[in-house]
């Protein structure tokens, strides 16, 4: 049996998805550099996502409450970090408002 190594040309879509995921992860890490912001996001993100799922299983108040609490925790992390919440950045850009994607103290000068 002749086994040939998998060439890079065989999975172009997967490579693009992985490249996009790497860029998104690096961007996310740039925007959450303090331990507090990073940690509170590690609580808030799963809580918000689970809240969406709970909307279909429990009374809507529980799901909505979990989603809101998770999102509020993330918002607190961004206030502490000094940058804008990611979901608001495109809206602010569209409206011509100033945007703080990465907190000034963490921006790379030059």
Strand content: under 5%
Envelope shape: globular
Relative helix content: 55-70%
In whole angstroms, the N-to-C terminal distance is 55 Å
Describe this structure in words.
This protein is mostly helical. It is built from four helices and no strands. The model has no long low-confidence stretch (mean pLDDT 86).
Properties at a glance:
mainly alpha
Brief synopsis:
With 110 residues, the chain is mainly α.
Topology at a glance:
Layout: H1 12-31, H2 35-54, H3 60-81, H4 89-94
Helix pairs in contact: 2-3
């Amino acid at each position: 049996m002749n086994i040939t190594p998998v060439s890079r040309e065989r999975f172009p879509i997967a490579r693009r998805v992985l490249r996009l995921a790497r860029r998104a992860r690096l961007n996310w890490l740039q925007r959450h550099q303090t331990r507090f912001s990073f940690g509170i996001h590690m609580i808030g993100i799963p809580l918000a996502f689970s809240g969406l799922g709970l909307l279909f299983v429990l009374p809507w108040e529980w799901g909505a409450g979990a989603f809101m609490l998770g999102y509020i925790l993330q918002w607190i992390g961004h206030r502490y970090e000094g940058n804008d919440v990611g979901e608001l950045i495109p809206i602010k850009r569209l409206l011509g408002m100033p945007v703080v994607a990465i907190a000034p103290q963490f921006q790379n000068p030059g």
